[in-house]
Design brief:
2 copies of one chain form a homodimer. By secondary structure, the first copy, chain A, is α+β, with helices and mostly antiparallel strands. Chain A is built from 5 helices and 9 strands.
Chain lengths: 193, 193
C-alpha cells in the first residue's frame, strides 16, 4: 500500500518526524487522503476541511499542498473523524469518514476509535497493523457541497490594517475599534490581553 | 543567519516545499521562532500559540515539534502577528510580535505588514530581503501567562464517544445528543450537515 507519493514505510517515517509519534489516527488519515484524491477529478485545485483537530490535519499537511498556514486546510470541528476535499470555486467535494458501522472485524481499531478501553490498555502497534490490513474497507464517502463561506470568491477583499490604540499592535481594522486581545479575547491572563 | 537548525537558504527551501510559496510572513515567523527559543529555558517542554492563522503557524510547524494535529500548536486568532511559546504546565511564556513601531527603516516590510499598497504593487523578494537584513531588530517580546484553559492538566479526561443517532457517525458524547454537524454546525449545505 502506498500513501500519497510515499511507500507505507516512508509515510510512517514522515509522520514520526512531523507529528512526533506514529499516532494511529494519522495512519488512518493517510488512507483517507488516498480515498479523497481517488474520487476527485485529476489536476483539480482543491481545499481541504478536517472535521477534527486531532491528528487528521497532520496527515493532510504531510500529503497535500494544503497547510493551516496557507489556509488551504481548514478545521471545522464537528468532532467526527472526517475530511473533505472540495473544489475551492464551486464548493463541490468528496467527504471521507471512518465509518463506525464497518469496524466489526477490527477490534483494536474499534477500541481506539470508540474509546472502548482506556488508552493504557490499547496496543498502538496492533491498531496501526489493523489500519494497514483493513485498507480502504472501513471508510465511507459521500458527495457534499460546502457552505459559501468556505468558497474562494474572486471578489474577496482583505481588510485594511489599523494600529490598536490600546496595545499599539497591527490588527485587522474590521474587527473593531481595538484589537480582539484588548477586548479580552486573547489567550493571556491580565489586563487587555 | 540560521533559522532553527537550518541555514537561511535551507529554511527557504523547506518553506517552499511545505507552504507552497516563499511567503514573507513565514520568513518573519522563522525569526520569531528563533527569538522565542532564545528566551526560553533550554530543554523545557513548551506549547505554542499563534495569534493569526496566516503563515505564522507554518513557520512553527516547520521549526518545532508543535503541529496543529498534535495539539501542541494552537491558533487563537486576535489577528496580531504574534506567537507565544509557553510552559504547558505553568502557563508562563514568552510572546514575540512583529512591532509596527520598529518599521521606520523598512519601507517594504511596512507596506506589506500594514497593507499600505495593494499586493500587486509589492515586491515579494524585496520584503524578504528586508526581513533578512532587519534580523531580530523589528520584533518585541514580553512575558505572558496564558489562561488556564490552555494549560495541560494531569486531570484532563477525554470525553467518551457516542454514535450520533442522526448521521450514525462517532462523535464526542459531551457535545450534545446529536453531533454538532447534525445541529447545523457542519461546513456543508443540506440537511443535518
Amino acid at each position: 500500500m502506498n500513501i500519497g507519493a510515499f511507500t507505507y514505510e516512508e509515510f510512517i517515517d514522515k509522520v514520526k518526524s512531523f507529528h512526533g509519534s506514529i499516532a494511529p489516527g494519522i495512519v488512518a488519515g493517510g488512507i483517507m487522503v488516498n480515498i479523497a484524491r481517488a474520487n476527485l477529478p485529476q489536476g483539480e485545485f482543491f481545499d481541504v476541511i478536517c472535521e477534527t483537530g486531532h491528528c487528521l490535519p497532520d496527515a493532510v499537511q504531510l500529503l497535500t499542498p494544503c497547510t493551516i498556514g496557507n489556509r488551504w486546510l481548514k478545521i471545522v470541528d464537528t468532532s467526527r473523524y472526517a475530511l473533505t476535499f472540495f473544489n475551492k470555486y464551486t464548493g463541490d467535494g468528496i467527504r471521507v469518514f471512518l465509518d463506525a458501522r464497518k469496524l466489526k472485524d477490527w477490534p483494536a481499531i474499534r477500541a481506539w476509535f470508540l474509546k472502548e478501553k482506556p488508552k493504557r490498555d490499547q496496543d498502538q502497534q496492533e491498531i496501526i497493523d489493523e489500519f494497514r490490513m483493513a485498507g480502504t474497507s472501513i471508510y465511507s464517502t459521500e458527495k457534499v457541497r460546502v457552505k459559501p463561506s468556505y468558497i474562494t470568491s474572486s471578489k474577496q477583499k482583505r481588510s485594511s490594517i489599523s494600529l490598536c490604540p490600546s496595545c499599539g499592535e497591527a490588527y485587522r481594522a474590521d474587527l473593531g475599534e481595538t484589537c480582539p486581545a484588548c477586548r479580552g479575547k486573547g489567550p493571556y491572563i491580565g489586563k487587555g490581553k
